[in-house]
Design goal:
- The protein is α/β, with parallel strands linked by helices.
- 42% of the residues lie in helices and 14% in strands.
- The chain has 15 helices and 10 strands.
- The strands form 2 sheets. It has an 8-stranded parallel β-barrel with strand order 3-4-5-6-7-8-9-10, surrounded by 6 helices.
- The termini are far apart.
- The structure holds flavin mononucleotide.
- The site of flavin mononucleotide has 20 residues, from strand 4 and helix 9.
- The site of flavin mononucleotide (FMN) has 20 residues, from strand 4 and helix 9.
């Protein structure tokens, strides 16, 4: 996979997840393997220029955390340019721009012209960055504001002209938030809109099959995985194997999940110190336990841990408690196995006869109904 001058080891990317894609998690994903490029959480350009601790912590890295992209956000062209220069000097191999959804809903406000003005402004900001650094500049966007305002193809084309090396597109509109189905046809339109640069599709990839479907149906050059990687840091490695062989590798066994979870905590403590690292890990551990089978006993206790020792003791007690759900070979009895993960765009549509008309909820004291 090429991204500007970069040669990446795979076309699978780790999406930015503010609060989650910190150095420890990126190291975990890299150790498990298969990821081509990881991105930091979004970093405020101005905070970075002002050397704020929070921004510096977000871009903290080490040699094993490579190749790394830093994601910037900001709307002042000079600040974005100066922040990109800092990011390059700190050793990132690319800089990504969080576009959010810069093109507001254009209905009723002079449709095309408002959009073009916005596009021109954005393109100028990007050009300023591209001209100031040698590393590739990329952009991440949604499909648009809502289904009537799918602006991503126009934005992608304008950004390609401004010099971006790749486009990341989350296949949902801003109105959709994180719900509803990822729109593969919408991603395809972005792929078709650009001339030479790679488009990387994103949204709801929770299995290797979903990654393959997005690649096949949109023609995108790569896929970027966010929440799917948090449930399953093995998803990159398994996706590469699935695409190469056509065979779905088995899911990691419980012992492997526990090994990686322990490693993740160790890295959190290394990077953030024991107290903060453990506190932060309270929201990380339940992502791992989602695939453990029955886990309420674990989740209940893990949100209180303050030290590594406490965590190990919670885990030991849980492993003992979990035995009641295992067969003679130590495998989870099938009736306790977690349901398979399914991406929104891989669910079978319900047959028309079983779908109900949407009945609007009337205004009133609905909270007591
Ligand atoms: C908790 C959380 C934090 C996020 N933070 C960022 C961010 O910092 N920058 C960004 O561009 N997108 C961010 N996103 C969006 C994701 O990068 C991604 O586009 C979206 O979650 C869809 O992909 P996924 O289904 O693989 O997670 C965030 C999403 C979540 C759930």
């Amino acid at each position: 996979m090429r991204l500007g001058p970069l040669n990446l080891s795979s076309n699978l990317f780790l999406s930015p997840l503010a609060g989650y894609t910190n150095l420890p998690f990126r190291l975990v994903v890299r150790e498990v393997g298969g990821v081509g490029l990881c991105t930091t959480d979004l970093v405020n350009a101005r905070s970075l220029i002002e050397n704020r601790d929070k921004a510096l912590k977000l871009i903290e890295t080490r040699p094993a955390d490579s190749p790394l992209a830093v994601q910037l956000f900001g709307s002042v062209p000079e600040e974005m340019r100066d922040a990109a220069v800092i990011v390059e000097a700190k050793g990132a191999v690319s800089v990504d721009i969080n576009m959010g959804c810069p093109v507001k809903k254009v209905v009723n406000i002079g449709r095309g012209s408002a959009m073009m003005t916005e596009l021109d402004k954005t393109a100028a900001l990007v050009r300023g960055m591209v001209n100031s650094v040698k590393i590739p500049v990329t952009a991440k966007m949604r499909l648009g504001w809502d289904d009537d305002n799918l602006t991503a193809p126009d934005l992608a084309r304008a950004l390609e002209d401004a010099g971006v090396a790749a486009i990341f597109v989350h296949g949902r509109t801003r109105e959709q938030g994180f719900g509803g189905t990822v729109n593969l046809a919408g991603i395809r339109k972005v792929v078709e809109a650009v001339k030479n640069i790679p488009v990387i599709g994103n949204g709801d990839i929770v299995t290797p099959q979903a990654a393959k479907k997005m690649l096949d149906e949109t023609g995108c050059a790569g896929v970027s995985i966010g929440r799917g990687a948090f449930y399953d840091p093995w998803i990159f490695q398994r996706t590469l194997q699935y695409i190469a062989s056509g065979k779905l590798p088995p899911e990691p066994v419980f012992a492997e999940r526990v090994r990686v979870m322990n490693r993740h905590l160790d890295l959190m403590i290394e990077v953030f110190g024991e107290e903060l690292g453990c506190r932060m890990f309270r929201k990380v551990a339940p992502w791992y336990s989602k695939r453990f089978g029955p886990c309420h006993e674990f989740n209940k206790k893990v949100v209180q841990v303050r030290t590594r020792e406490e965590f190990r003791s919670v885990l030991e007690n849980y492993v003992r408690w979990r035995q009641q759900f295992l067969d003679d070979h130590g495998e989870l009895l099938p009736r306790f196995a977690p349901a398979p993960m399914i991406a929104s765009f891989m669910r079978e549509p319900e047959p028309a006869s079983t779908t109900r008309e949407h009945i609007p909820v009337p205004k009133g004291p609905v909270e007591v109904w």
